[in-house]
Design brief:
- The chain is mainly alpha-helical and 194 residues long.
- It has a domain of 133 residues: Up-down Bundle (AhpD-like), CATH 1.20.1290.
- The protein contains 10 helices and no strands.
- Helix 3 crosses helix 8.
- 38% of the residues are buried.
Length: 194
């Protein structure tokens, strides 16, 4: 049960966005820029970074939802997503992504855990300064998102199918649709009450 009164039927961060749509809009915009907008890192790679950090933070909602989105981008390859989140060193991924996941894992531990040799290893595998920057920011943002979701004990579905169902829409449309849906639902509720 959530620590605060949230709307029924809105799991995870979606319930928090419905509770406070003004901050939800800002956090959705950040997710849109980091995970969906054009970038030299593929959307699947960025979702894998978010999934891995969420796994390290033991945030079931975020690892399941972003893992499902990553799997959608990877044509349903849930085994690859699972291997990346649990052990990127043995996952069947390119060396650049492996090096970036190492950096992301270090950020999850502590920003000060990222060493210059970690960054240099990513550069040797072809990572640009922008990709290194974005990896660190995705990892840092997901530490915040994970703690936001779990710190308020939001409702977390345990069935993987509910995450798969939503993944296709997010993978295609991005992260800005949810705040609009919430605002429309709030406006509709207000007009019904009037």
């Amino acid at each position: 049960m959530a620590h605060i009164k949230l709307k029924d039927g809105w799991p995870g961060i979606r319930g928090l966005f419905a509770f406070r749509s003004d901050t939800g809009e800002i956090l959705s915009q950040l997710a849109q820029v980091l995970l969906h907008d054009p970038n030299t890192l593929y959307r699947a790679e960025r979702e894998l970074i978010a999934t891995h950090v969420s796994f390290l933070n033991d945030c079931h909602y975020c690892q399941a939802s972003h893992g499902a989105i990553a799997a959608h981008h990877l044509y349903g390859d849930e085994e690859l997503v699972d291997s990346v989140k649990r052990d990127p060193d043995s996952a069947n991924i390119n060396p650049k992504l492996r090096a970036l996941l190492n950096v992301a894992g270090k950020v999850q531990d502590s920003g000060k855990s990222v060493l210059s040799e970690d960054v240099e290893a990513a550069r040797r595998e072809g990572a640009t300064d922008r990709e290194i920057h974005d990896t660190v920011l995705i990892a840092a943002a997901f530490c915040m998102y994970n703690r936001y979701v779990d710190g308020l004990a939001t409702f977390t579905p345990l069935d993987q199918e509910s995450y798969r169902e939503r993944a296709a829409g997010v993978a295609q449309n991005g992260y800005l649709r949810l705040p609009r849906m919430i605002a429309e639902a709030e406006a509709s509720a207000v007009s019904v009450q009037s």
